[in-house]
Recover the amino acids of this structure.
């Protein structure tokens, strides 16, 4: 819970500047648990019909419900419930059928009702896991399943903005009431890399499921980490410290490392770790304690009497299940088996749902699966990251890319020329690859008569080499082909040239 | 003389003896003449006149196509949201607040051509049994202006009693409609929990709060219930059961082959020392009349009676402590101004605004509720009270397995003197005030419907009420029975 008068106090310098000697990092292990908040991409809010969208003018998505006017009542958003269930199903969690929302009472200006509607007992998803492959603190890769404690549904608070007016805090209630799921892991992570891999996987999952845009910078995906340390071999948990203010996966990883180091150093220098909330300072790469007036908040949870329990019937659950999109692991399997792709390709292509969907669309029109994969992993991905295409469609259609692959396969254009054509396709998506190749004079010359005269010229210019070739120096073939290609200004079909030269010299 | 039933209003409107405008003008005159009763906190004189003219025009145009409440002049307790109008729940903390939406119940009254004449004084946030905790000052009982009208819907009951409007819409969390109705000699109905949407009702205790009508006759409250009740997409706790024609409800008479009605009466209501002798006598009189009419009337006792008030106060204050958190001075209503030169501090702003904005009764209940929900006492108070609430429901259900109605006096005493139970400087026991709700809270703890109708007067000439309670959603028979007893 954020308090208003929070001044970060920096921990003593010597603790931060002391270098961790290698034996210490092998003496202690980190015990890490994550709390991940995902803003759900529903059209309306968790308990009101107000629009739920990022980036609107302040206080334009606020109804009497959001602003907690007297007499206003909440009404649960069923789509948000479905989204939470999707995540639970994707993680193999047990789905709670009777969902009760509780009031978490505290005062803060960005919390209009004076309580947050959340799930205290009986979260919508219980248990479940997310498999990751990550490095431990010792640097070795291991496959591990991150165990979830639960996933619960709740509403977001508004935003307090402290940097507009020097004398006042401004409040924007657009975000107030935005549906959130909070995923809470068991304290089963052991390294910063595991935390990073887990978050990457969560982000990929929510995007696949279409329930959250997974944007840490904009805060639609937020992560708090709980870190404690213990000597290796000990099973009891140490005192945990919560670290907040983490706005990227990299910072989550940095914070875990920094906090682990701080706790080890503190312990080694005779200090005692206290249970507290610390903020990560990305510039300094350190965590700093928060000065809190109250040690413990009593949230006085009780079931909200304004809401009836949301009951998920068998039929509703079956419906949600039937509407589940394919998950990354299913598609990975499909790519490696049905399309025969190497693991590397499958992993890359399943990074984003859009990518693999595009891939499958291309493969629907070409049998050259590996070629399609190469195109996606190379030029397509490069284009995607070069242009920020998050908000608009990738201009080249799957059909056009398949057509381009066909042109190469038929020998109509060369690989090199295809790269040029692809660049043009991005700029002029309305024109077909064949049209573009023709207009740019990039079609390969497959006219045997034309090529034969070029070949005759080259062979006549290199009589001694021809002699050597005939005596067995077969690797001179490349020289002849290269010369012919040069003379054709790259337009000749190298395969055909190859064939014709061999015929001429046999 | 003011009209005492909607039927007579309708008859005179139909035969041209009066007009909506005439009615409104009469009520406005009486409101002005009875300003000392302090029943209204705001009167919408111009708006009501304008609406009356409009309605008269509509009737002239087509006397058939008029709403079911055409010509009914209604007052709203100051806890019902009415777009464009002030809404304060009798509290300073909402000073200057204008409602931005209209409660579903009020919306439905307006759709049936009711005329809203003003908003009515009440105990602050509907917390009280005497209407002495309002920021707008005390309301006086028209039967004796030195006495309280009951609460919390005191202004609403007095307005009907004194003929300042034909009907009022109040709210009942522990008896706030029935107890003042009894004190003022009018009819008050608390429907089944969830029968009327709470959208637009300022919350006191959400799982207890019910909107309820106050009028001169059971038929009038029945019609109002019929208009206001029913499903509403804005309240997820409202019932979707179809709404019966409550205003047409009848019980088959014994003569026409109907079975005798089985009435249980609470033995404490006629025997307990805590109930005034006049009220015991009046209640016994009602029992005797029912017996004489051939009904089955038998005594029952509730083993959990003594737990009703503690259960009620723990749960309602717990819910209230949370419901009233939104009144923090941040977005609307009263905000304390820092002393000149003083630094604005958030926590200080909260404390000051709420201390200045809330009166002592509300502050007391917020503190009680916060305590009941606090981690160290949660199980001992909140959880325990929830368990008792379930037991009370079970026991009440067992009573209704054998009976159609449960009969009690509405209150243990009649209207008391102003200050008699609320003088915080004198050695008054706040529990004495809370005991005024002893017979009414059961219906709120269980969610059952109950009605209070007049049952004579005491030796001081003060009104006495009698209460009938029925099983959930049995409003039809409850109203029919009340109608029958009312006529006797």
């Amino acid at each position: 819970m954020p308090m208003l008068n929070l001044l970060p106090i920096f921990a003593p310098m010597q603790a931060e500047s002391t270098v961790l000697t290698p034996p210490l990092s092998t003496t202690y292990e980190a015990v890490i648990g994550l709390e991940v908040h995902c803003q759900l991409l529903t059209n309306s809010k968790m308990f009101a019909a107000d629009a739920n969208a990022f980036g609107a003018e302040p206080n334009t998505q606020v109804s009497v419900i959001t602003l907690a006017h007297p007499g206003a009542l909440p009404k649960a958003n069923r789509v948000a419930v479905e989204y939470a269930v999707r995540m639970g199903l994707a993680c193999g969690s047990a789905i709670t059928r009777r969902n009760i929302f509780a009031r978490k009472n505290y005062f803060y200006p960005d919390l209009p009702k004076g309580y947050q509607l959340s799930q205290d007992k009986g979260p919508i998803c219980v248990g479940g896991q997310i498999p990751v492959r990550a490095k431990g603190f010792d640097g070795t890769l291991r496959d591990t399943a991150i165990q979830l404690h639960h996933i619960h549904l709740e509403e977001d608070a508004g935003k307090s903005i402290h940097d507009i007016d020097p004398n006042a805090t401004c409040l924007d209630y657009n975000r107030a009431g935005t549906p959130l799921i909070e995923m809470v892991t068991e304290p089963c992570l052991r390294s910063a890399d595991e935390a990073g891999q887990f978050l990457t996987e969560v982000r990929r999952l929510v995007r696949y499921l279409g329930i959250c845009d997974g944007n840490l910078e904009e805060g639609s995906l937020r992560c708090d980490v709980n870190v404690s340390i213990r000597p290796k071999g000990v099973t009891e948990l140490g005192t945990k410290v919560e670290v907040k203010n983490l706005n990227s996966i990299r910072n989550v990883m940095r914070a875990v490392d920094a906090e682990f180091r701080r706790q080890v150093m503190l312990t080694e220098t005779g200090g005692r770790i206290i249970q507290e909330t610390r903020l990560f300072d990305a510039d300094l790469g350190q965590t700093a304690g928060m000065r809190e007036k109250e040690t413990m908040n009593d949230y006085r949870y009780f079931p909200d009497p304004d809401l009836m329990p949301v009951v998920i019937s068998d039929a509703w659950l079956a419906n949600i299940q039937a509407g589940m999109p394919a998950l990354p692991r299913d598609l990975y399997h499909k790519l490696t088996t049905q399309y025969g792709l190497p693991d590397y390709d499958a992993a890359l292509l399943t990074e984003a749902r859009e990518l693999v969907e595009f891939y499958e669309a291309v493969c629907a029109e070409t049998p050259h699966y590996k070629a399609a994969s190469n195109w996606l992993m190379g030029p397509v991905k490069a284009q995607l990251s070069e242009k920020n295409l998050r908000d608009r469609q990738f201009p080249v259609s799957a059909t056009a890319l398949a057509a381009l692959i066909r042109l190469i396969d038929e020998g109509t254009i060369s690989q090199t020329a295809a790269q040029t054509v692809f660049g043009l396709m991005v700029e002029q998506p309305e024109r077909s690859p064949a049209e573009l190749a023709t207009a740019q004079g990039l079609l390969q010359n497959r006219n045997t008569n034309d090529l034969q005269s070029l070949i005759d010229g080259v062979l006549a210019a290199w009589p001694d080499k021809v002699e050597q070739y005939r005596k067995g120096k077969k690797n001179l073939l490349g020289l002849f082909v290269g010369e012919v290609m040069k003379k054709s200004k790259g337009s000749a079909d190298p395969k055909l040239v190859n064939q014709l030269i061999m015929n001429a010299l046999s | 003389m003011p009209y005492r039933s909607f039927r007579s209003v309708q008859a005179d409107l139909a035969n041209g003896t009066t007009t909506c405008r005439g009615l409104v003008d009469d009520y406005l005159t009486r409101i002005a003449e009875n300003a000392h009763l302090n029943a209204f906190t705001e009167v919408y004189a111009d708006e009501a006149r304008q609406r009356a003219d409009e309605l008269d025009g509509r009737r002239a145009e087509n006397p058939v196509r008029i709403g079911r409440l055409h010509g009914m002049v209604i007052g709203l307790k100051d806890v019902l949201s009415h777009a464009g109008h002030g809404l304060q729940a009798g509290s300073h903390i909402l000073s200057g607040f204008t409602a931005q939406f209209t409660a579903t119940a009020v919306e439905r009254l307006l759709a049936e051509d009711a005329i809203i004449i003003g908003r009515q004084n009440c105990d602050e946030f509907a917390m009280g049994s005497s209407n002495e905790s309002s920021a707008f000052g005390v309301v006086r009982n028209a039967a004796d202006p030195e006495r309280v009208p009951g609460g919390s819907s005191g202004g609403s009951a007095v307005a009907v009693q004194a003929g300042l409007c034909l009907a009022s819409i109040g709210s009942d969390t522990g008896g706030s409609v029935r107890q003042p109705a009894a004190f003022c000699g009018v009819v008050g109905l608390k429907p089944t929990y969830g029968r009327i949407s709470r959208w637009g009702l300022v919350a006191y205790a959400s799982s207890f709060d019910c909107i309820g009508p106050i009028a001169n006759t059971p038929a009038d409250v029945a019609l109002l219930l019929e208009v206001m009740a029913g499903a509403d997409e804005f309240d997820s706790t409202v019932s979707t059961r179809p709404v019966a024609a409550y205003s047409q409800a009848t019980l088959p008479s014994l003569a026409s082959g109907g079975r005798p009605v089985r009435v249980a009466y609470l033995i404490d209501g006629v025997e307990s020392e805590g109930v005034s002798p006049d009220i015991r006598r009046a209640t016994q009189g009602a029992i005797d009349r029912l017996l004489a009419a051939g009904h089955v009337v038998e005594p029952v006792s509730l083993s959990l009676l003594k737990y009703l008030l503690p259960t009620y106060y723990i749960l309602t204050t717990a819910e209230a402590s949370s419901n009233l958190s939104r009144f923090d001075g941040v977005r609307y209503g009263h905000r304390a101004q820092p002393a000149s030169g003083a630094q604005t501090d958030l926590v200080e702003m909260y404390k000051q605004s709420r201390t200045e904005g809330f009166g002592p009764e509300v502050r007391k209940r917020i503190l009680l509720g916060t305590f009941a929900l606090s981690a160290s006492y949660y199980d001992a108070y909140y959880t325990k009270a929830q368990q008792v609430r379930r037991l009370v429901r079970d026991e009440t259900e067992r009573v209704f397995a054998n009976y159609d109605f449960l009969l009690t006096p509405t209150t243990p005493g009649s209207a008391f003197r102003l200050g008699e139970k609320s003088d915080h400087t004198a050695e008054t026991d706040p529990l004495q005030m809370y005991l005024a709700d002893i017979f009414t809270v059961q219906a709120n703890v269980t969610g059952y419907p109950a009605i209070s109708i007049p049952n004579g007067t005491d030796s001081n000439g003060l009104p006495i009420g009698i209460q009938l309670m029925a099983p959930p959603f049995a409003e039809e028979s409850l109203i029919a029975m009340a109608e029958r007893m009312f006529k006797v």
